[in-house]
Amino acid sequence: MRQLFDRRDALTMLSVIDDAGIDRGTIGQAVHALVDTMADVPAVMESIAIDQSQSERVRHSAILFATSSAQWQSPAVALNLLDRIRASIASDDELRAVVDWLTGDLKQYGRVSFY
User: Fold this and answer.
1) How does pLDDT run across 60-79, given as a tens digit for each residue?
2) CB-based burial of residue 13 (10 Å sphere; 0-12 exposed, 13-18 middle, 19+ buried)?
3) Looking at the 3D structure of the chain, how many domains does it have?
4) Which stretch of DSSP H or E encloses residue 88?
5) Taking 90 as the threshold, does the pLDDT of residue 2 lie above it?
6) What residue numbers bound the domain in which 64 lies?
7) 2-6, 69-73, 92-96, 102-106, range with the lowest pLDDT
8) Is 59 within a domain?
């Protein structure tokens, strides 16, 4: 199944996440489950997160999913990913706040959890 979804498919899936976000029982949670079946989720989601041509909502979700996937390798891998994203979104206060929140949770708890 990992070969079935590519970056273009990920963009389509991320675009259907509505105002309910990725809370339990939402379309966003279903999208998260599908995104997790992709090959190299952190890299694909990072490329979307730093793509300024995408909407803030899509980029926000991509940051969440990139971090969620990267943390399974290790908290340090996830923190490095967030550092790279932070450097690319320096001018976007809202997305930077998301990165700061995720960084804080990783440093304090060693993981992030959305559900």
Assistant:
1) 999 999 999 999 999 999 99
2) buried
3) 1
4) helix 75-88
5) no
6) 7-109
7) 2-6
8) yes
Q: How far apart are CA 105 and CA 66, in angstroms?
A: 15
56 in any annotated domain: yes
Residue 62 lies in a domain: yes
Per-residue pLDDT tens digits for 16-49: 999 999 999 999 999 999 999 999 999 999 999 9
Contacts of 29 (CB under 8 A, 6+ apart): 22, 23, 115
Here the tokens at position 102 are 């995720």
Give, in order, the Cα–Cα distances in Å from 8 to each of 4, 5, 28. Answer: 11, 8, 17
